[in-house]
Amino acid sequence: MRCRVKLQKGKEMAEISFELFNNALVQQVVGAQDANLKLLEKCLGVEIATFGNNIIIKGEKQAIEQAKTAIDVLYNKVSRGIGIDEQEVKAAVRMSGGNIDSQTAQDLSNLVLKTKKRHIYPRSATQAEYIQTMMQNELVFGLGPAGTGKTYLAVALAVSMMLEGTIDKIILSRPAVEAGENLGFLPGDLKEKVDPYLRPLYDALYEMLPAEQVDKKITLGEIEIAPLAFMRGRTLSNAFIILDEAQNTTPMQMKMFLTRLGENSRMVVNGDLSQVDLPRGVVSGLRDALEVLKGTPNIGSVRFSADDVVRHGLVAKIVQAYERKSKKEYGDE
Q1: What Cα–Cα distance (Å) separates residue 81 from each residue in 25, 108, 111, 163?
Q2: What whole-number distance in Å separates Cα of residue 293 and Cα of residue 285?
Q3: Strand order in the sheet with 2-8
Q4: Each residue of 104-134: pLDDT tens digit?
């Protein structure tokens, strides 16, 4: 690889030329009518040209280094038989952001959670960090806005560990605090009232396991989806336990939940401190727990940002706008 650096309009500009050696794989990376490269150009503000197996990237130095890393990630993926689409290209851009080097980005993109219906890969460096943190710690806090994959990846790891036989049970829970709504006015018994509120957890499961297996495991009690109040008085052993929307717990509820952790279990607590639906003046149990447990061994914490949002591109812009408002008004980190 050769690199030539020149100055232009006050910025450090550069040109990188490198070669990818497998013709068939290069075509997959480039995409039909160079579609993947055009998307990289749009995302990173660079110019990319190909001459056979040679790729030349021109632009601001940091941007072309990120583009080179993103192409390395894509080449690594097609080398392992993974198809490249628009979402994979955007994931490679997110994976190559910051000061991450090419080899590290490739290693992180190689992380995989295997479920019955699909293999799930991290879509950003923070998602990769989150997966690694969940694997290495008995208790993990996942913090950040909606759309960053916090709950989805936690459920994926839980399903993967169940299929491997590492744990016997998956327990998914949410506090019964509604976003401006009241469950008491919904028709039906308690389960029928609560099930729509827990629907995101069901949706994640059905994306990873055949529907009949999900239903059977729920019937047998191998998968349990329940409001937080149902956790009181229990010791949860040989289980993977996930608490979603944890910003809506009180400190007492959070303490109750965290002390349910039993032998050979893992616990993941996810929430967004910018979306607390508790009554005004009530302290979030998630915020309280982060302060109380700071520095405790075997507890991990991963913070997501708007850059990690993997939904529609407009969602990231919406999250960024609310983050700016929150920092301005409340000084939130």
Answers
A1: 9, 17, 14, 23
A2: 12
A3: 2-8, 11-19, 54-60, 47-51
A4: 999 999 999 999 999 999 999 999 999 999 9
